[in-house]
Amino acid sequence: MLTHRLATEPDLPVLKTLMALAIGELQRGFLDDAQIAASHAVMGLDSQLVADRTYFLIEDDGRLAGCGGWSQRATLYGGDHSTALRDEALLDPMRDAARVRAMYTHPNFARRGVGRLILSLCEAAAAAEGYRRVELMATLSGEPLYRACGYREIERTAAAPVGGVIVPLIRMGKTL
User: Fold this and answer.
1) What is the pLDDT of residues 75-113, one digit of tens each?
2) Torsion sign, CA atoms 75, 81, 82, 86
3) DSSP string, 74-112
4) Which of its termini does the chain have fewer beta carbons within 10 Å around, N or C?
5) Where does residue 122 fall: left (phi above 0), alpha (psi -120 to 50 degrees), or beta otherwise?
6) Does residue 128 come out as left (phi exceeding 0), alpha (psi in the -120 to 50 range) or beta?
7) What tens digit of pLDDT does each residue of 38-70 get?
8) Does domain 2-175 fall into CATH 1.10.357.10?
9) What whole-number distance in Å separates Cα of residue 50 and Cα of residue 8?
10) pLDDT for 84
């Protein structure tokens, strides 16, 4: 049975491990090896989400099944190491869309409701703070889940090239 809780600072090492595993395995079939390697430089842990108490851990009988969160900050995607993508400005719920951020599922738990649970938690928390819309930056492997959960494409884009390698992304949004 899936359970959830807010992530805390002591969880950071296991979160990083899960993210690396998810990026490395769940992107296969959508990206080539060079794009997967470049993804590690673009994606990953944003510890600000944990500090803001907006980042969830999903567990199944004590095993980490996934993680993800939402944010009231302008940063749309990227980890602590992707400093060029960071914008810590606070969003206005009357004008801006909250951000769904850093969703990762352990490969052993793929297609078992982890992603849907994370989305429902994030959407409910954002709505409780007055947000009427949410946006996210989807990977190609995440796009089918987001579409199935009511997200619509805003634009197809790509991360800034990493060593000349382009990682395709899709900005998506949903009205709450």
Assistant:
1) 999 988 887 778 889 999 999 999 999 999 999 999 999
2) positive
3) S--S--TT-GGG---PBP-TTTS-EEEEEEEE-GGGTTT
4) N
5) alpha
6) alpha
7) 999 989 999 999 999 999 999 999 999 999 999
8) no
9) 6
10) 72
Tell me the C-alpha distance between 164 and 12, whole Å.
30
**Tokens 């095993």 belong to residue:** 63
Spatial separation of the C-alpha atoms in residues 14 and 32, rounded to whole Å: 26
Residues 153, 172 contacting (CB under 8 angstroms) = yes
Mean pLDDT of the chain: 96
Residue type for position 71: S
**By CB neighbour count within 10 A (0-12 exposed, 13-18 middle, 19+ buried), where does 97 fall?**
buried
